[in-house]
Each structure stands twice: as structure tokens, then as C-alpha cells.
Amino acid sequence: MTHLAGFPDRPVRVNARVDAPLSRWLWLVKWILAVPHYVVLFFLWIAFCVVTVIAFFAILFTERYPRALFDFNLGVLRWNWRVAFYAYDALGTDRYPPFSLGEEPDYPARLDIAYPERLSRGLVLVKWWLLAVPHYLVIGFFVGGAHLGWWSSGLIGMLTLVAAVILAFTEKYPKDLFDLIIGLNRWVLRVSAYAALMTDAYPPFRLDMGGPETPDAEERT
């Protein structure tokens, strides 16, 4: 497992790299190919919500997020990020996402969240609804509130559609556009981790563009 305690200033790290070459036309059917994942994720997100409620009371009484529950919710977020990266939140790879809650270090989309030894009892009461409201307004614009067929009407979905059209005609994924899309997804995932009580570090109002947040040679056990 990755050592994450070494970056308390950045407890949520989102990494991604675009695969090359990418198929010109596979993106047209990825929504069909990803259906099995969507079915599984539907039930995983129900479990995620239940686990978060249990974690809320655990933090409130013990100041700790039970490690097993934390690892499960981290796994759900990782799974969701890999599917989003494959499908219509990035289209950054043609590699089919694994059905896994694990880290999957070889997959081009990765998510790491540092496990907190202690969490604030006071913050757990307000951070997921009151403190996070400004971020909800921002990421609501990113992800949109409606879907056009299978595609989100938010900024991320629209930019990914632009990338898909460019890819279809040029066989290339514009680097600047990829960096922007990853930056937007990074913002969403940081807020998701905060709202899910997995960190007390308030998400920055900052668009960190680009793929990797960690060096390729990060320490591992």
C-alpha cells in the first residue's frame, strides 16, 4: 500500500495519464461497455452512503474513522474514478477498468487518500453540508445536473465530448485539454473525499491541472 502520511497538506491525490494510441471510435460505445460497472457501482454507492453514516457516528464518539470502513469507501471512490476516466468524464484510456476495490497501480487512473489517525468531532457535524456548500456550487457546474443521453451536461462532460471529436478526426488527445479535464475531476474528487468525512483538510479552491500529482517512483511497501 502507498505511504500517504507524508503529505498531510495534500491528503487526496488524483493521478492520471492518457494512454496512446487511443481508438478513434471506441468512445461511441464505451457507455455500453461500461454498463456492468454502472450496475455494480449503483449498489456500491448505496453501501458507500451507509458506511459514511456509520463512520459519522464513529468519528463523533471516537474521533476515528474505522480503518475497514475507510478502506471500503476509498475502494468505491477508486473504482468510480477508474470507470469515469475510461468513460465519459475523461476518455483517457481504452483499457477496460478492473472490477476491483483495490489500488490497481498499473491502471492509468489512480486515487489515493491518506488515512487520518484522528478526525475532528466538531467538523464532522458541519463539514459535509455547511462548509462544503461553496464547493458544491462549483462542482455542480463541473458535473451538471442533467444528462444528454449518456453524457453529462456539465463542463467536464462537454469538454470530454470536445476531446472525443478531436480524437475522432486527429487520433490525438490534446494535452492541454486533457490536463484541464483532469484538473476538474481532481477538484470533484477532493470535495467528494471531504464530504464523505475521509479528511478534515478543506479542499482548495484551486484547479490543479495535469495528470500526475506524485512522482512515478513514489515509495511503496
Tell me about this structure.
With 221 residues, the chain is mostly helical. It has one domain (19-195). The protein contains 7 helices and 4 strands. It has helices spanning 30-33, 35-62, 67-86, 121-131, 133-143, 155-170, 175-195; strands at residues 12-16, 109-113, 147-148, 151-152. The chain has a two-stranded antiparallel sheet with strand order 1-2. Strands 3-4 form a two-stranded antiparallel ribbon. Helix 5 (133-143) packs antiparallel against helix 7 (175-195). The chain is globular and about 55 Å long. The model is unreliable at 1-7 and 215-221 (pLDDT under 50).
Tally of structural domains: 1
Number of helices: 7
Rg, rounded, reads: 17 Å
Report how far apart the termini are: 6 Å
Helix content: 40-55%
Shape: globular
How large is the share of residues in beta strands? Answer: 5-15%
Arithmetic mean of pLDDT:
90
Number of E-state strands: 4
What is the string of SSEs from the N terminus onward? Answer: EHHHEHHEEHH
Largest sheet properties: 2 strands, antiparallel
Structural class: mainly alpha
Major beta sheet, strand line-up: 1-2
Features:
globular, 4 strands, two-stranded antiparallel sheet, 221 residues, 7 helices, mainly alpha, single chain
